[in-house]
Amino acid sequence: MRAFVARDGAAVATLDEEERLVIARIVADVGLLLGAESFGAEHHSTLPHREDLAESLRFLEDLDDAPVEPDDPALLRLLPNASPRDRDVSDEFRRLTEEELRSTKIARLRRMWDELSADGTEWVIPAEHVMATAAALTDVRLVVASRLGLESDQDAEALHAELSRAAEAADRGVPVDADIDPERMWLGMLYDALTWLQESLVSVTLGGHA
Amino acid sequence: MSTQERLDPRTGTAARVREPWVTVVWNDPVNLMSYVTRVFQEYFGLARADAEARMREVHENGRSVLSSGSREQMEVHVQAMHSYGLWATLERGDG
């Protein structure tokens, strides 16, 4: 994976096929969480997780009613309460904005998924799509962070300490500590990769922006 | 933050005008400092140095008031912040 750099007025990163597949998959999962139809369902074999499916169905049930605060903390992070201390203000905000927020987020994720699912190793983002892509990457990172239980800056630091220990153990060829959960480490590495990609994307200078 | 000096055109005196609602952006462990700065530049039209100062306020104090005005205006701003993935709320200004 190579970070985003500026080229001919666009931001360009390089990801191999497996990296594209992994990121496209989590992007599609976040789309499902937001109630989207499965991205590329017609030619993709990935089935939604059961919990994602349940979440999608719950969204369908809610269609006739005013939207309610999501039970899933990851979805709540994508569609937060606008006024945690005032339930009426939060509910009114949700009623006014949630549908549009969902569709904005889904459209951005879908475009990112399409780009990652195209052939080739380059991921080219034209200047006018940089912020929308950075926003979609944020949504994916918010969901991964929620699954990792990152609620404070200290949680994020603790995760990095864990990742370093796991990487050191791997370098020395010794087994990782029993208390390190491989699935959590995998998710943590994905989170770091997405963070690194987003940081490079936001830092690229494409004229107009200093 | 929710109160500001305004010149009354008839009397020529400064009147305290209460802005009834504010948009607050909160710190979170996920959003990158560079990204938050750019969102503030792009959306609120802040100069880079001002956007950075607001981002630092969010990061160091846990929150920053980015705007004040009517509830409807603040709902628009909060929706925009949520679309960028920032954690924002609207509050009644406490004058």
Keywords:
heterodimer, A: 210 residues, three-stranded antiparallel β-sheet, 7 helices, 8% strand, B: 95 residues, alpha+beta, Ribosomal Protein L30, Chain: A, 5 strands
Q: How many domain modules of chain B?
A: 1
Number of strand segments of chain B: 5
Q: Overall pLDDT of chain A, averaged?
A: 88
* Principal-axis shape of chain A: globular
Report the sheet with the most strands of chain B, covering strand number, pairing sense and barrel closure.
Answer: 3 strands, antiparallel
| Greatest contact between two chains | A-B, 38 and 24 residues
How many strand elements of chain A?
3
Largest sheet of chain A: 3 strands, antiparallel
What would you report as the Rg of chain B, rounded to the nearest angstrom? 14 Å
The CATH superfamily of chain B is Ribosomal protein L7/L12, C-terminal domain/Adaptor protein ClpS
Q: Provide the helix percentage of chain A.
A: 55-70%
Shape label of chain B: globular
Helix count of chain A?
7
| Count of runs of 4 or more consecutive helical residues of chain B | 3
How is the largest sheet of chain A built, in terms of strand order?
A: 1-2-3
Question: Which structural class fits the helix and strand makeup of chain A?
Answer: mainly alpha
Please tell me the CATH architecture of chain B by its name.
2-Layer Sandwich
What is the string of SSEs of chain A from the N terminus onward? EEHHHHEHHH
Gap between N and C termini of chain B: 8 Å
Pfam families (chain B): ClpS (PF02617)
Protein name (chain B): ATP-dependent Clp protease adaptor protein ClpS
Organism (chain B): Demequina mangrovi
GO molecular function (chain B): peptidase activity
